Amino acid sequence: MIGRRSQIGFNQRIRLDWLEQTANLILAGNDKTSINDSLQDLLIDKVSVGGKSVRGNREKVITILVKTWLTVPREREELRDKGLEILQKLPHKDRIAVHWCMVLAAYPFWGVVAEHTGRLLRLQGTAAAAHVQRRVREQYGERETTSRAARRVLRSFIDWGVLDETHNKGVYGYGHQYRVEEPELIAWMVEASLRARSNGSAAIRDLLSSPTIFPFRLARVSAKHLACVSPRVHILRHGLTDELVMLRKEGPS
After folding, report:
1. Is the Cα torsion angle 241, 193, 217, 94 positive or negative in sign?
2. Can you tell me the distance from the alpha carbon of 88 to that of 67, in angstroms, rounded to the nearest whole number?
3. Where are the chain's structural domains?
4. Distance between CA 159 and CA 153 in Å, rounded?
5. Which of 28, 117, 184, 250 is the most buried (most CB within 10 A)?
6. How is 64-120 classified by DSSP, letter by letter?
7. Stretch 102-119: mean pLDDT, rounded?
8. With 70 as the cut, is the pLDDT of residue 66 above it?
9. How far is the C-alpha of 99 from the C-alpha of 15, rounded, in Å?
10. What mean pLDDT do residues 8-37 have?
């Protein structure tokens, strides 16, 4: 693994409403300082209560929130802007798909944990935390920091309601499932998924049913239609039936 895909980054338990608040602050036109101050106020009685550490868990949570929605690199600015646009159109209950995929694009580690969780759920209907952590350590190394980060991502999945705890400790089942029908949102989710991949391309059928988006059931749409909806992706036919979706390369600035 190379580059940002070898970095964990996402090592805190993040609640969905915190991401929602961050996006709303951006939509309201707040600058970075105001957003940071607002998030400090939001989290003061929720994370690192009474803590005085300069880089305590509260500051780490804020870093994740800000890197997901605000301080994105140039190549993800259009994705972020489109995501904010889509958020404003969606009912509150359906916004989870946008936040999920923005985290996925910003933190590939989130996607790795989701991928192993989703695969186990499909195979046997449940996912044991120990099994997910073992598979993640195979990619990120036998470190306690890896297991701890994976546990926190799994706890985030539970907080978001997409995993349910079973009567067996450390074993989880499917939580709430979301059906996604809107082509504009599907195209955007596909682009976000591509941003999380090291090669920026994948077969359309794999993207629409990827275990990294296990809480969502995407309607079947053609690759051609996705390319029409999103100007940032294009299609490459591979063989007689396979269609690859790829990120368009940006021209020189």
Report:
1. negative
2. 20
3. 178-247
4. 10
5. 117
6. HHHHHHTS--GGGHHHHHHHHHHHHHS-GGGTHHHHHHHHHHH-HHHHHHHHHHHHH
7. 96
8. yes
9. 11
10. 96
